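Internal ticket - ligand job 372, fe (ii) ion:
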Amino acid sequence: MNMHSSDATTAEEAIAAQEALPPLTNEDATRVAMQNTLLTPRFYTTDFDEMDAIDVTPVRAEWDVLIAQMKADPNKGHFKKTADWDTVDWDGMEPKLKAEFIDFLISSCTAEFSGCVLYKEMKRRGSNEDITTLFQLMARDEARHAGFINDALREAGIAVNLGFLTQSKKYTYFRPKFIYYATYLSEKIGYARYITIFRHLEAHPEKRFHPIFKWFREWCNDEFSHGEAFALLMKTDPALTESRVNKMWIKFFLTAVFATMWVRDHQRPEFHKALGVDPAWYGQEVFRKTSEITRQVFPMTLDIDHPRWQPTLNRIQDANVRIAAGERQGGMAGKLKALGGRIKAGANFVALLTIPVQKNAVPDSPRLEPVY
Ligand SMILES: [Fe+2]
Ligand SMILES: [Fe+2]
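stdout (structure tokens):
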């Protein structure tokens, strides 16, 4: 019998295990995964030589502990269906919920796989053993995560073609420092999102309409470790978080990542209703946890309780509805409507940036454990 992606020790093995499954050419799912908009997960490329040149000596003690934890691989074999995987009644699922949930799974699979391709490429191109070891371990985890979501999608007769995506999806270039900010944040917000849903469903098991949520605790611990690695990487160069310009970039990335999450989640009302979660509550809860965690390395947090914060996010959300409606409508009037929406979204994003931040004194040692 072939190996399952959850037992793979490298990303390559995990992807091969997924590809070896009976072919399911679902062009719709892959087409959704191929989309590149401000709101869909992208694939990234960077200056791999610059990243390979990182010297982790300043954080050596903490680095070795983290890498040893990741090498011990506590989640090997976790990301596969077991007896806990209840039967999913896809045909009986309310159509709107089904559509939103499938969209959620495809977008999550793409985001997981986006991490995998970036980390795998860094491992392939690098020669610095510290760096290649870390990136190979993270690529392994992300390939398992993406593979597991694909297993869930397969039951609905859908799969994202991971090999095709690697070859054909457009790659966006980010300078290494932007990769650190964006990836660090996406790992930590990923942790906060998964654990918040997991804890909510622990308290309200009757709302667990799909078994995949039972796997979220171990899952988010992987993301937490990945985030820890990026926190240590940023600690190797104080200018990354302390220079005036970089502080502005950090604020920009925090705002962009939070606003994107807000808009994306508000696009899935039925999904959140089924979970019994108010997207605004969920957003704020995730922002709060993420902010608390990022105090390990970022010199500021966003003021998410500022009176202008939520109303401005809601205006960006309204603008997004207008953009989507304009695009659906088509023609000159539709184009104008979408353009109006983009201007409104942009202006409100700038308005978010004018909210003063809360300063944070960064601790000497960034290391944290997942506590939520
Ligand atoms: Fe992941
Ligand atoms: Fe991750």
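Auto-summary: The first strand starts at residue 43 and ends at 45. The chain has a mean pLDDT of 93.
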